[in-house]
Specification:
By secondary structure, the protein is an all-alpha fold. It has helices spanning about 5-15, 25-35, 45-60, 65-75, 90-110, 120-130, 150-165, 170-185, 195-205, 215-220, 235-260, 265-280. The chain has one domain (about 5-280). The N and C termini lie far apart (about 60 Å).
Length: about 280
């Protein structure tokens, strides 16, 4: 077993070599080591592991079989679903940084002339991410000495790349939109690290698909129901206030992302109406 110091040195060497793997490196063993350390609470090591894993994927250093095996490992209970439901727990780093690996694999698949993932593979990934997404309760962005968690932002990135896959159809796009609406309408703790901005980038990827009509969008955005407050219970009031804040911040971010783009003028006008309704509620 390699010591932590030697492991860090090997990672830095790969980063310095722009992820070109020497012929004497056992790549499958390296990938296993990387995935075993993807959620380490040691910030600097986790960043190195993330950089090497995603760098190897983006540099197309892995075979199709290695990519598929890596993706399957990401979707296991030991990674994407590890400790799911807990808050303020180090398990979030495994989930959140595993999501970045999934994101990179989907991004590469979208880019390659000969995709290594078929429609069934993509639909399986989407299903697993959709299962994970509403159950992620750790809303921390920057988590102090342990560095970034940012699980909801990382999930949004993955939604964005899934939305760009030709294997994903209108029904899938609508399911993603509804999952996002539900997430930002029900989370009782505030998102404070621009999760709304990252999520809006994913929504824009969805809107850019030809299948997404204004009618479908209008049904979705009109479904953001204003939060009704309970003024008799302060703890409940604060949770509801945070839900309202998350919801409005996401809608505001979407408004400003689309504003000025003539293609989305109808969308902008409708978002303004929905926000006005929320402000007057």
């Amino acid at each position: 077993m390699m010591s932590e110091t030697n492991f860090k040195l090997k990672l830095q060497q790969l980063i310095d070599q722009e992820f070109k793997v020497a012929s004497n490196v056992e790549l499958d063993e390296l990938l296993s080591q990387l995935m075993d350390n993807i959620g380490t609470p040691i910030f600097e090591l986790r960043e190195q592991v993330y950089l090497v894993l995603t760098g190897l994927i983006a540099a197309d250093e892995l075979s199709d079989e290695q990519l598929k095996h890596l993706l399957n490992k990401c979707l296991r209970p030991t990674h994407l679903f590890y400790g799911l439901g807990k808050t303020n727990d180090d398990a979030v780093f495994t989930r959140s940084f595993t999501m970045l690996v999934i994101r990179e694999i989907i991004a590469l698949n979208n880019k390659k002339a000969q995709a290594f993932l078929n429609e069934s593979d993509i639909k399986h990934v989407l299903s697993e991410v959709l299962t994970y997404y509403p159950l992620e309760m750790d809303t921390r962005g920057y988590a102090g000495a342990s560095g970034w968690a940012h699980a909801t932002a990382h999930a949004a990135d993955t939604f964005g790349y899934l939305a760009q896959s030709p294997k994903v159809g209108l029904e899938d796009l609508l399911v993603m939109l509804n999952a996002i609406k539900e997430k930002f309408s029900t989370m009782g703790t505030p998102y404070s690290y621009e999760e709304d901005e990252r999520t809006v980038n994913a929504i824009l990827c969805i809107l850019n698909r030809e299948e997404m009509t204004f009618e479908s969008f209008s049904i979705w955005v009109d479904g953001f129901a204003p939060v009704t407050f309970n003024h008799t219970d302060m703890a409940s009031y604060v949770r509801l206030y945070h839900r309202r804040l998350n919801q409005k911040n996401m809608l505001r971010s979407l408004y400003f992302k689309l504003k000025g783009n003539h293609k989305y003028q109808q969308h902008v006008d409708l978002i303004a109406q929905v926000l006005t309704r929320h402000n007057h509620h």
